[in-house]
Give the backbone structure.
Amino acid sequence: MSDRILGGTCLLLSMLYIYFAAQTQVGFISDPMGPKAFPIAVGVVLALGALYTLFKPDPEPLWPRLGRLGEIVFAVVVMVAYTYALPEFGFVVSTSFAAGLLSWRLGAGPVAASIAGVAIAVGIFVIFRLVLKLSLAIGPWGF
Amino acid sequence: MDILASLGDGFAVALTWQNLGLALIGCFLGTIIGALPGLGPANGVAILIPLAFTLGLPATPALILLTSVYFGAMYGGRISSILLNIPGDEPAMMTTLDGYPMTQKGQAGEALALSGVASFVGAFFATWGLVFLAPQLVKVALLFGPAEYFALFTLAFATLGGIAARNQAKAVIAAALGLAIAMVGVDHQTGVPRLTFGEIHLYEGIHFLIAIVGLFAISEVFLFLEHPNGSAPGDAKVKLNRLTAPLSMLKETRGSMARGTVIGFLSGVLPGAGASLGSFVAYTVEKRLKDKEGTFGKGDPRGVAAPEAGNNAAAGGSLVPMLALGVPGSGTTAVMLAMLMALNITPGPLLFTQQPEVVWGLIAALFIGNVMLLLLNVPMVGLFVRVLQVPTKYLLPAVAMISFVGIYGLSGSTFDLLVMIIFGVGGYLLRKLDVPLVPVILGILLGNEMEKNLRRALTISDGDLSILWGSPIAITIWTLAILGFVAPLLVGRLLRPKKDATVAP
């Protein structure tokens, strides 16, 4: 079933892709092939692969249980929130929270996870910002 | 003896204190990356590229740093294979078969030392192979026109899809997805935006580093979240009695190392095969030839030496097509190509003629790195063993955060970070569905180049498609491409190691 969904999704994607590629505005000066042909060809190849997978699926992969999928969704939410938090709260604070939460969900106890989060954030800040002078997100407090 | 003279110049480039220092750091980091389960050479190098890039290192030192990491990871992969029965990376999978039984017999120290020496032998001779083979390939490649290059890119996808994937249709999907992503952005020849949906961030296209870090590193975090408590590697409470291999053991296994090296190098040169195939074939051949008493799989030193020499030789071998043709043969070399592209270096025959100092400096760095790795790995293996005990629950958050730091450093844009997360989720789904990630990466990396060559060829012929198979070289490449895609369907079951989705690429 998973493979059929994969095939179906890719087929749909390829159709949309070909449609949007065909919408490309072409100027009046162009090489013989133009900017549309290659993306359309790629879309066709994708459709062929998708069709095969749709009709000849592999055995079902081992999906995690629903609760575990929830963990993954949670991790995605943490990461997205992290990207938005970076410019607001600066690198160290955002990273402490994000790393701590991830480490907690990966099985560390709450106390250990918070320590790990802060340690990771401060460690990265010291190595990459103070030693290697890399640009990190600077929040209102300058770190 | 031009080659040796060029190599001498290369050593002159590489032998500065700064470069030696970078090589040492790279080897050290690489060994750790290789040893840690969940961080393979491909995603290890992928995380480090944006960092090396934003640090503003010039091309040659950056290359030296990252190739040292690559080779270090190849060495490091064996440590957890031998001690914990968990391969640190995919090519090290075959080392578990005899390496772990040796540990159970109390010979962990011997196995580590022996595999260190075997890694050195494989990598050292493969680098010599690279020195002599790459310039020959360059001579052929200088005859290539756009039509031949287009065929060559197709060959890379075909063999990669044919050999590396278990299901060819999924390899096709993967390659098409990668190419489709590469097309996003302003068309280089006519200047019209394609598939950007008016989103200004997409005009420059999606940066390949964002895709690579997302697909490899971020998806790894999701894979580990599937298992409660992060399936931490068990305690490595192994007593290391001695850290050297007895001379008799080295003598006994020298044939295995030699065979492993040759087989590994050849399978590395084949596009699409890479180190995993090298170690797999090396082990299989060794077992067929030498397993007279049925000792393989029960801790036979030859079963450790052959695949380790094989995978390190393949790592060297796979640099041949990458440097000489600009077409990577495996996941890790695809990441290496990304690194070269990030540094504004286009590998291929012109690199050898126009920037010989980069090529030969890199090759000299490989030799230096190998010697360093041997020196680091044999006496200091105890230190690396201790690093293995860092539990995944602390390691993976750190890896994820470093990935964010690297991508943020590229542009400082939230949009790029979101795209990276999307790639992470996509990479997780594709890995679960057994769609190989390497063709996706290759598609993103090579897509524009492939299209450019096709369009150039058709401009030359004024739209006549027959130019694509208009020369004997082109016909040869097309034939190889078809063979490379179809042949594994017939004999593939023999060549393909069983894959484990939880092992880092």
Remarks:
- Residues 230-236 of chain B have pLDDT under 50 and may be disordered.
- The first strand of chain B starts at residue 185 and ends at 186.
- Chain B touches chain A through 67 residues (CB under 8 Å).
